[in-house]
Design a protein that fits this description.
Elements: H1 21-44, H2 49-95, H3 97-110, H4 115-126, H5 129-141, H6 151-167, H7 171-174, H8 180-198, H9 206-235
Length: 238
């Protein structure tokens, strides 16, 4: 069987420009870790199962809203900053096209292109103002002005994935079980599965990615459980 070169296939790279993957992953992991840690903390303090559910539900709602708003604001602000820099570059191209073409040629020469070829290509690009703008922005800012992430995609994916992640450690309590250990175990499984899923988009093995997330969540839960236990003992809870 002949191996087709990747360059000849239409889609040999994943779509990383939509702005949903990072907030989705971050949201799911944050939801899992946050509520696992919250439940471990209040559970370690000896509160009732009803209080654990109340704390977890409050953490889910507050965290999901905060994550969604934070992602929207963050991505929107970044896009606005890029737009301001693009406008600045457009003005420079309109006022000083020759100087900008020389700057572009110098950048290519620094990368190893012959001076004559770099100058020739820069002059050819200069004749197309919109393409010149895109090329200059990519070279000078390292971004593509036509492929900026969507703030709404980031906000919605973060909100939904945080909610799902935060719900996982609450499932056992919502089903009527009152064991803190069981809730934390289910949350740990959720962390491992989430980490394994993330490995699909990276070069890590599924089990190492899952174990990494499980370890990070366990450290957070252990710290809050210890704090909850100490406060519970000092305050006479339980």
């Amino acid at each position: 069987m002949t191996d087709t070169p990747a360059a000849l296939r239409e889609a040999h790279h994943a779509d990383v420009s939509g702005g949903w993957l990072r907030p989705a992953v971050f949201g799911a992991m944050d939801g899992l870790v946050t509520n696992i840690a919250l439940i471990a903390g209040v559970g370690g303090g000896g509160v009732s199962p009803r209080s654990v559910v109340l704390t977890g539900a409050a953490g889910l709602v507050a965290g999901a809203i905060s994550m969604g708003l934070g992602e929207y604001t963050s991505v929107r602000s970044a896009n606005e900053q890029v737009a301001a820099e693009v406008a600045k570059e457009r003005r420079e191209l309109e006022r000083h096209p020759e100087a900008e073409a020389r700057e572009l040629a110098d950048a290519w020469v620094a990368r190893g292109l012959p001076r004559d070829l770099a100058t020739q290509v820069a002059e050819a690009v200069r004749r197309n103002p919109e393409e010149a703008l895109r090329v200059h922005v990519r070279e000078e800012l390292g971004v593509d002005p036509d492929e900026q992430p969507s703030p709404w995609a980031a906000a919605i994916s973060s909100f939904l994935c945080f909610s799902v992640g935060a719900l996982v450690p609450l499932v056992t309590y919502l089903l009527g079980f009152t064991s803190l250990a069981l809730a934390l175990a289910v949350g740990g499984v959720g962390l491992f599965v989430a980490g394994a899923i993330v490995a699909r988009f990276t070069n890590r093995t599924w089990w190492s990615s899952g174990l990494r997330q499980l370890l990070l969540g366990a450290l957070a839960a252990g710290a809050t459980y210890l704090v909850g236990t100490l406060i519970g003992i000092q305050g006479g809870i339980g």
